[in-house]
Amino acid sequence: MSRTTHVKKRMVAKTSGFTNSGSxxxxxxxxxxVQGSLRQKxxxxxxxxxxxxxxxxxxxLAGPFAGKAIESQTIITGPLMLNEEEQYLVNTSVPxxxxxxxxxxxxxxxxxxxxxxxxxxxxxxMMQYYLTxxxxxxxxxxxxxxxxxxxxxxxxxxxxxxxxxxxADLEFAVQDGLLSVKNAGFQHPNxxxxxxxxxxxxxxxxxxxxxxxxxxxxxxxKVSSTSTSVVTAKLNGQLLSATTPAxxxxxxxxxxxxxxxxxxxxTPSEAKPYILELEATVGQGGNAQVSKKTYLFASNGVVYDxxxxxxxxxxxxxxxxxRIDNLVVNLSFAKTNLTQPFSLPCETSFSxxxxxxxxxxxxxxIIGSNDDAPVSEITTLHGQQGYxxxxxxxxxxSLNVSIPNCDMSSGRRELPALNLGLNxxxxxxxxxxxxxxxxxxxxxxxxxxxxxxLSQGEASQEVTRxxxxxxxxxxxx
Length: 477
Known about the structure:
The protein is mainly β. It has helices spanning 3-19, 30-34, 435-439, and strands at 68-69, 80-81, 87-90, 99-105, 112-121, 127-132, 145-149, 159-160, 170-175, 178-183, 193-197, 208-211, 217-224, 230-235, 238-239, 248-249, 254-255, 259-266, 273-282, 289-299, 302-306, 313-318, 327-333, 340-342, 350-351, 357-362, 366-368, 380-381, 387-391, 399-406, 421-425, 433-434, 448-454, 460-462, 465-466, 471-476. The strands form 9 sheets. The chain has a 5-stranded mixed sheet with strand order 1-3-10-9-8, with no helix packed on it.
């Protein structure tokens, strides 16, 4: 039996517990659980589970290079980019490599310069360098500085000052017969930090901000790091510029060596969430650091809205304009005898005692909200857990539920820790989660082997992305 088939059979056997939830007696045998109470009490049918193994995820970790060697048989045809790499090792014996240029931003400034270097390799293994900061003197005929490099010389590891400030700009040295060219003021870029404020300079501590529909909104976004960042923005997936109709993300209002401030303007035309995705790149080349930040602008307070066929309708909104720990969730379950899987996109503890319905879930075993369940344990609803609701057989209308005091301050996406075997879960937050996000929640030694999204009745589908408000089987081997 293949591993895929084994996973399918195990999932079907576990899910049959929902199908036969009318019996208090649980038999671990799949065949016996399929029989018995199926024709007796009200069935809860989740559907036939079909899972395939997901391709395993791998990560390649790489550290910074101590020095980047120019291939010995390659002539240098462009400048050495010392803003991107801290160090280059140059083989000056290769014809053409005795003269080269350097692209460098002076430390603690934003001033960029192109320097030219000429190197003479001496018979005793030493090297004489000539340097000019005149970008037109490509032959280095009129050097502004010169020096002797080689083993035993105190100046062989010396620092070179090109401009007039007190900070060293370059370091030249002989290293294993090669010329080491190093950026003396190189800073390995750090991750960027984001701050958002209004026109009055008031900073917001939450990532979810209330905005009023059809009212022009203007914000200042400050991005800080070891050097000035290159920042891009998307609003609901659309890349922004200074002129895009959906929203304007202007060029820098202020730019310093360690931060940049940009202006963001938009007018929300609908009562819905507007998601701003920021990406800041600090540094260049292989040393660049990319940082991301997401803000949600809740137009008329709407934080999340799920309206899809075959799922309960869901609307999450802010009760208070400055609080995201007191949200309200409105759920609407259709009038149907079919099962309706769901989850809550925020953290709460909501009593189910007054609901005219039966609710089931799975936590290593089938649990339910009344005596028809194998284990009657569900008294309250919580985030990160998957649920299945079935209306009473005599229900005459749809079921509308309002859940107060729901907390989304944990962030745009939060997942529960996974256990070996089957997990019946949901996503807390306003943003979907991927299989990569789930991998971070695996137990030691566990491997993600499948995700199944459930919908009304017996419908199900294999997915790699999960949405808040829906319920999912997750298999871990």
